[in-house]
Amino acid sequence: MAHRSGVSKSTVSRVINAEPGVRAEVAERVRGVIDQLGYVPNSAARQLVTRRNNAIAVVASQPQNRLFIDPFFDSHLRGIRKELVHHGAQPVLLFLEEPEEYPRVGDFLGGGHVDGALLFSLRADDPLPGMIERLGLPTVFGGRPLVREGERVRERVYVDADNRGGAREAVRHLVALGRRHIATITGPYDQEASAVDRLDGYRDVLLDDATPDLIERADYTRKGGADAMAALLDRRPDLDAVFVASDLMASGALQVLRERGRRVPEDVAVVGFDDLAPIAETTDPPLTTVHQDIEGMGRLMARLLFSRTGEPGEGRAAAVAEHPLSSVVTPTRLVLRASA
Amino acid sequence: MAHRSGVSKSTVSRVINAEPGVRAEVAERVRGVIDQLGYVPNSAARQLVTRRNNAIAVVASQPQNRLFIDPFFDSHLRGIRKELVHHGAQPVLLFLEEPEEYPRVGDFLGGGHVDGALLFSLRADDPLPGMIERLGLPTVFGGRPLVREGERVRERVYVDADNRGGAREAVRHLVALGRRHIATITGPYDQEASAVDRLDGYRDVLLDDATPDLIERADYTRKGGADAMAALLDRRPDLDAVFVASDLMASGALQVLRERGRRVPEDVAVVGFDDLAPIAETTDPPLTTVHQDIEGMGRLMARLLFSRTGEPGEGRAAAVAEHPLSSVVTPTRLVLRASA
DNA sequence: TTGAAAGCGCTAACAA
DNA sequence: TTGTTAGCGCTTTCAA
């Protein structure tokens, strides 16, 4: 104990937490002793009483490598980190690949190491939201969580883009271009809400023209997009446009189109979704796509979380916002490049 | 408190920690109450007394996006996670981008949330190792940490590949092929030991033939490799081979070679380093490169760490291994493909 | 086989 | 402005 500086624990505690009511001279002396001893407060003890620790978990339940390949995640995480760090909170990343890992992650989350959690890339039947709800840990979701029919859950706060509206705009653009046979490559709509919403947007515009043979489901990967494009081309050689539900899939689709000798946009117009600069700007031709502010959504998630947990360092964790918080849907817009 | 199950705290504690000396019937009843209440032990309190918490920090002080693009990191992290999870420890990722983040990361690390740390991607002058040493947190480094001259540090345990030996083998292969003017594109040898070692291996073989105009420093990125290749070609149009210190840089170099009309391997033979499947197997032509067991190195790091901290759940954290631990250097081997 | 009591290192009331 | 006291929720002797 640094009380060898000649004062009581309380005073040391006050100095460490920069509380008022300590003579400057005493504070100075205490700080000296702290430095000299290399003293670091034991935060388990501190947390036991304050119920706070200025760390926020960022949990992704997805194969790590899918995450690492996906520029979407990179931007999203950047936004989250910026905002968290800006508020003085430490982001702690947890990946969740195997079912066996759930109990341990649950223990960590419930163990009071973090004040809140940011979750994303959840599968439809992921047990994590339920676990966290039971723990009572403040949480914000990235992307609207899919809730199974009949499942009773507390309201879940999320941040998402206007996927349906963005998809509508993309498809309307294709229609305005005079395209007659507009296909779509979707995301895994059995697993992710964004895939459902983008497909709904496509249907909103095309109505009865959206026949099943124009719709091919893929998995948000590049290869999945390529395979889906090939299948579509085999089935409907007459198609003259495709709305692809992600840029990564679109880059795969463009490659197949090129291999099959179809010119883009002359023969087939292509619109993507995401507007990920490293992809959309470098494809051949550059991709017309639906822009969403991914980094901004990440920041928003962090801000929403703080409005539930209270700012780091401010009072007890129990200080949850009184005004009920709602989810946020951010706007999208179509960015015209060369592919459509 | 779950003591409404009619027993004392002690007994509940025993049940939770699966300690012997509890009547099966009582244990059963307690477990029932626990489930029913959804009780999760507060690990801050537990940790305060046990000094353990079965979580290990994985710390990377690198711009997040460099990490996310680098398949090396992906494999490395996969190995680490596998081993950690296998031992029942929770991996906790911390990124470190801005200098302002160091104090907070230090607090988290020193705060007793984790039993040990795995560090990598450290810059030469990174303050992190020093900070952690002062905290007394058991640590293992990924890649030999560069120590500045005159700096006094405790011995640092690391896991690294035989970079120098691998480089030697690569360059010898080029020599055996009859190449006369063998250039090299290096990593940032002012920052990373692996870059230093690979350059040393190159020099070991070439001796006086390794003139400065054949050596070009880059930064382990694809673009850096491309730029370096261009500079080399401008300076030494007569070069007929290049040893490139990473696959990512090699892929950039190959592209420049192609653009400049040099055939590989006929005009210029190329050998890389890393043997990252997603790169080396898909370049045109496929890359001859030095293989290292990246995932295995990750696992090894975790194992070494456990030999310092003791296995998760086993006694107190203080139970550090008595036998002094040493660093490990894993072997490399040349994988022949088409580029050399 | 169980329970009672002490105490891990801190902060938060309350006294001085 | 400072010190004293009482816990935070757990594990761990020790005694029953």
Automatic annotation (TrEMBL), chains A, B:
One Pfam family recorded for the sequence: LacI
SMART domains reported in the protein's UniProt record: HTH_LACI (SM00354)
Boundaries of every HTH lacI-type domain copy: 1-50
Keywords: DNA-binding, Transcription, Transcription regulation
Domain of life according to the entry: Bacteria
Name assigned to this protein: HTH lacI-type domain-containing protein
